[in-house]
Every structure is written in structure tokens, then in C-alpha cells.
Amino acid sequence: MSQVAGAKLAHENPAIADLSNPNRPTKVGEKNSQLYDNEWTEAYTALLKDENSASDEKLTGYLYSILIDSYRFCEGVRKTQKKRLEDILFHPAVNMESGLISQMKDLSEILAKHLSDATKMSGDVASLNMVQAFAVDKDMKTKHGKRMQQCKAFIEECVKLCWLMHVQTPPLCIDTKTTKGEHLEKEKYKEYTRKGQKIAFVVWPALFLHEKGPLVAKGVAQGE
């Protein structure tokens, strides 16, 4: 019983950090900031050379859309993966006696915790597969076209990062709700190149520990 209780306490409890996990939320937050500082800057520079007449809002908006698309793509794959794994482990037979069902519920708490841990630990390897899947996805190729190659390094790091967000239990959450015209909350967003009380456009979204959870990494927004 103590093992079941421990599994219930630890599983999907973001307040309990596994310090042995190199891809724990705080580390993902650091990678998020590094991506913006490094690959984002390189991708922006590449786009600016090719589209020097484009506005800053348009260029940053495109890079923002890549991150959002990566996040949603990984979200869909992760949900499918989780369902398949749970079906294999927890529902191997369609019909079970009531006593067995009760035992399976206790066992599932333990297995779910181990399954979650294994998924996190294999996150770096699995993220490489996600990069390949994103690159050949028909919808992504149609939407991003030649920029798939132009911003290749940035896209790859976005997909890797977003996969690591989604293997957390619960998943890390990026802010997709903050939009133009809203108050610029400086505890959540850094100012881009211009200060202001309101948001002109979001450059990079804030990152949270989970939906409606505490802040992991500040976003970047243009003030007006």
C-alpha cells in the first residue's frame, strides 16, 4: 500500500521535483531561454536578410508561430503515445473480474509513475524522432515551405524543447492567450525593443509549470 500511496503522491505532482531527471521543468525552462537567446536570434537574422522589407512584427510573428506549431504538434503526438502505452499496460484484456479491476487500479498508479519517469528520461532521444516527424509532416511543410530549411536549426530546437515540455507530468504550458492590446505584465514578460504599458505584439511566450501554474520562464513582448 505504501508503494501505491507514494506513486499517487508523486505522479502528476509538479511540486515534487525529480532532481535526477536532466529534463526536469527548471532545466526545460533554461533550455527555453537559451533557445530564444541563440537559435531564435540566428533565425531572425536569416529571415531579415531574405526579407529586409518585412516589419519586425511580421518576422518575430513568424518565429512565434513556429514555436506554437511545434508545441501543438508535440502535444498531439504525446497524447497518442500516452494512450497507446496505457492501453498496452493497463487494458490487455477486454473483460476482467471485478477483483482484478480493483487490483489493476492500484497497479496502474505505480506503473503510470514508472512509465512517466521512463518517458522523461528518454526525452532527448525521442525528441530527435519528433524533429524528423515534424520535418515530413504534410501540414507543416505546406505552412512553412522554404523556411523549413531557412530556419532549420531553430525549428529543430523548438520541436525538441516542446517535446520535453509535453513529457512532464503535467505538461509545461506556454502562454498562447496573451495578445495585442493587453496590459504588459512585467512579472511575466520582458520588454523587447520598446517599453510600454500595453502589448503591441508577443515575441516569445511565457512558460508555466502547468496550466494556471507558476511561472518557469518569462516571455518577451513589444511594448506600446
Automatic annotation (TrEMBL):
One of its GO terms (biological process) is mitophagy by internal vacuole formation. Residues 24-221 form the Mitochondria-eating protein C-terminal domain. Pfam families: MIEAP (PF16026). Its main location: cytoplasm. InterPro entries: MIEAP, MIEAP_C. It comes from the Eukaryota. One of its GO terms (cellular component) is mitochondrial outer membrane. Coiled coil: none annotated. The keyword Cytoplasm applies. One of its GO terms (molecular function) is lipid binding. The keyword Coiled coil applies. It is found in: Cytoplasm; Mitochondrion matrix; Mitochondrion outer membrane. Keywords: Coiled coil, Cytoplasm, Lipid-binding, Membrane, Mitochondrion, Mitochondrion outer membrane. Belongs to the MIEAP family. PANTHER family: MITOCHONDRIA-EATING PROTEIN-RELATED. This is Mitochondria-eating protein. It comes from Potamilus streckersoni.
